[in-house]
Write a structure and sequence with these properties.
- The termini are far apart.
- With about 425 residues, the chain is an alpha+beta fold.
- The chain has helices at about 1-20, 25-70, 395-400, and strands at about 85-90, 95-105, 110-120, 120-125, 130-135, 140-145, 155, 160-165, 170-175, 185-190, 195-200, 215-220, 220-225, 235, 240, 245-250, 255-260, 265-270, 275-280, 290, 300-305, 310-315, 320-325, 330-335, 345-350, 360, 370-375, 375-380, 385-390, 405-410.
- The strands form 8 sheets. The protein has a 4-stranded antiparallel β-sheet with strand order 3-2-1-30.
- A hairpin with a 4-residue loop joins strand 23 and strand 24.
Amino acid sequence: MRGKEIHHRGHRGSISVCDARHRPHGPALAPERDLIDSRAGQILLTRTKQLRTIRFHIISAIILCSIIAACTRKREWAGPKFSGRLLVLARDGDLNSDLIEITPGPDSIYNHTVITSGVFYAAASPDQARLLYSTRDGVFPRDLSKGTVKKLAPGADGGISCLTWSPDSNQFSFRSSESHQRSARANLYVSDLDGKTKLIWESWVGGVSSGCDVFWIAPDRLIFDRVLGAAPQKEKAGVVLLANTTTVAILSDPVKLVDTNKTWSIDGVCQFGNAAVVRPQHKDYPVSIAKNLDDLKTLNPSPVSCSRCQFVGFAAKSCVPFFLETDNKTSDIFSLNTMNWQRQRAARINRVFSAGAANMMISSSARLMVVGSGDLLFLVDTESGDVEPFFPKSFDSILNKRIVGIEPIVWLEK
């Protein structure tokens, strides 16, 4: 029994071995296949995680690039389009200027043309028919429709400056200096469009203030500051003169001068109605506005509602005054209601223009403003505060010379 039992087990073993040799491979290799499948699954899982990680980084990079692009992309100009012709003075380091005409081109690109160089001063007539400018050679009016130029007054050793027009565009005034010295004489003249000049004030040494302080208040009257220095009185042609006055010149024959003690500094006079912006003498603030300057002795102007604002000009062909109020990072541009001189809603501009950048011009619609700041020129939407440069480069690069200021002179709107 025992041997038989052993034989039987051996037989079973033989059957098992034989069966193992001839049994299909699938069932016998199942554990090995499971092992392979497990390793493949782990590899696939690892690759999937890697792909997810790569995809995450790619998406993150795309989002980051989109954010950076959105932040650095030039904001699309949404305001009214600039149209017409703009004439500006680009002043170089020697205080000479190029007279430049700017016009819109295709695809929001602006064209520029240098009309003439060596310009000292320029002013457009109120009717925008002529542009008056001075050079070393004299005074020239340029017809803005035909482009013709003629000479009306000779040059002066110290230059001709402070060109201002009468409200009817038929006369203009100018200062003629005998030299570039600060104490030089600078006589004040009035001329018509035929070149007939009339002496208004024959300056004594040091007899004019710095800058341009001549304003027309009527077709036959202009107002200017007369400075006689430290002496309390001077006498000329038998007339005793006050030392420092605001003087009205009445263009009769002969010219009549009416003096008033200087208590106000004039920032601007509207040529299309009754409005004048004034400040107390030798002070920047408060800025006030008056209906007219007919009687300086009883002048009682209305203060402008601002702490430290700067008058920048009247809207073209109107008496709507505009002011700029700035801090270290932003500027507020606002106007006054001409009916009651109340402040209107201000537009916030997210930049500060260069110091003394009163080189601004407002369109007749009062919606757009052209601003010269340093060697750059900007278009400003006075409602939204959006700012767009006219050119991607500075005028230093455009003209290939040092430019210290851009001054808008006239905007011939379409």
